[in-house]
């Protein structure tokens, strides 16, 4: 009965439960496999993959903040060829029943399309998460990220959807004036779903050096501090689209996961909590039925339908 209560069905993804480690907070799975059986998870979002290997930003790249953290990793990854030859085969061999969501990043629509085309052919890759919080090299858009420009977002999503063999979920940045416009552009371009939110932008200073703590100056802020922002933006988008949303941003408990559902999410990404507690995901999965019982929630699917009806 517990299994049925937690089941989630999304485009390309039939999940035993809604809990998914967020990209960038779980590597390619190997780092956490020593703590627990990854088959406990609903799915796994692997680290962002670009066409060529990236060494990332100079250090320091991580800083603590109250109720969260800043990171400026810079999309460090071994590149598509290594991911296909080494990282994905390990996951597919050790966890053949675990659905994989491949996070794809790039700096032009051609790169997004090329990476998506290649990675979507891997056996257990059931969906792509499109990271459009990247600068674009094809247009003079005054330093805007792709996800901050609805027209650019449309072009990149459309190119990716056409190149991919699996459904595409677009990861939305909160650093926009109107997130609904970007979500609509993604939907119009053929996206099957959305993931949100990506990190906010912030910075910290070192009082001794009088300089930013991060070598990059600014970084992405995540953790419980961004949770209320994530809820608000998810609700805002859920009121305007029927696309399923994988909600993320500060989730660290079963209660927080259910709040995401109340905002309009259909599944849950867990990010920064994995750094403070490597067992965060299985702990949330274990506690969900207990919290659902406490608040009279028969199943996540019924809760999703109830919330969806209230949004219209």
Automatic annotation (TrEMBL):
GO molecular function, a single term: dihydroorotate dehydrogenase (NAD+) activity
Active site positions: 134
Quote the record's binding site residues for FMN.
Answer: 23, 47-48, 103, 131, 171, 197, 223, 249-250, 271-272
Q: Name one GO biological process term.
A: 'de novo' pyrimidine nucleobase biosynthetic process
Q: Name one GO cellular component term.
A: cytoplasm
The protein here is known as Dihydroorotate dehydrogenase
Cofactor entry: FMN
What metabolic or biological pathway is this protein involved in? Pyrimidine metabolism; UMP biosynthesis via de novo pathway; orotate from (S)-dihydroorotate (NAD(+) route): step 1/1
According to the UniProt record, what class of enzyme is this? oxidoreductase
Q: Which family does it belong to?
A: Belongs to the dihydroorotate dehydrogenase family. Type 1 subfamily.
> Where does the record place the Dihydroorotate dehydrogenase catalytic domain?
6-292
The EC number of this protein is 1.3.-.-
Cofactor binding note of this UniProt entry: Binds 1 FMN per subunit.
Q: How does it assemble?
A: Heterotetramer of 2 PyrK and 2 PyrD type B subunits.
Where does the chain bind substrate? Answer: 47, 71-75, 131, 198-199
Q: Cite the InterPro entries for this sequence.
A: Aldolase_TIM, DHO_dehydrogenase, DHOD_1B, Dihydroorotate_DH_1, Dihydroorotate_DH_1_2, Dihydroorotate_DH_cat, Dihydroorotate_DH_CS, Dihydroorotate_DH_I
Tell me where it resides: Cytoplasm
Fetch the Pfam families from UniProt. Answer: DHO_dh (PF01180)
Provide the function of this protein. Catalyzes the conversion of dihydroorotate to orotate.
